[in-house]
Design brief:
148 residues, mainly alpha, Arc Repressor Mutant, subunit A, two-stranded parallel ribbon, 64% helix
Length: 148
């Protein structure tokens, strides 16, 4: 069972809005918070924004950032590396330690990704761009899956 939480209300006339927010929290949670059983509308952050974007804008954004590639084109090792890198606040040494790899191996993987995308994840702005691109890719996959 999963629970969606809308914003707290003090007046009965706002219950409908809170219910819609809770419903959206469940929908967005299916995409970006797959392991969470309780999803709060107020903590959805950027996922909530992405969920409201039109698919044409999402496709255009991913195409521009990834230079015509698809977010699904990255191998699992790269995605695990990137997730762990983000989890460790872009800290190369700590990420390498958590992945049980040599620091130079991590640097090599980040350089390889930079050559592929033009984004250096050690740079905060590039890291944010890539994180959003992956989230938009997840959203697009979810929408495409729903159509079938």
């Amino acid at each position: 069972m999963r629970v969606g939480i809308g914003t707290a209300v003090n007046d009965l006339k706002f219950v409908s809005r809170s219910f819609k927010e809770a419903k959206m929290a469940l929908e967005v949670g299916k995409i970006f918070e797959m392991t969470s059983l309780v999803i709060n509308y107020e903590t959805l952050g950027i996922g909530r924004l992405i969920y409201q974007l039109p698919m044409s804008l999402c496709r255009m954004f991913v195409n521009e950032v990834l230079r015509g590639e698809d977010a699904d084109d990255f191998d699992e090792e790269t995605l695990i590396t990137v997730d762990k890198f983000f989890e460790n606040n872009l800290n190369v040494s700590e990420t390498a330690r958590k992945l049980y790899i040599h620091r130079n191996t991590l640097v090599y993987r980040l350089d390889k990704l930079q050559k592929q995308t033009g984004l250096d994840l050690r740079n905060f702005d590039d890291a944010i761009t890539f994180k959003i691109t992956l989230m938009v890719g997840k959203y697009m996959n979810h929408k495409d899956y729903q159509q079938f």
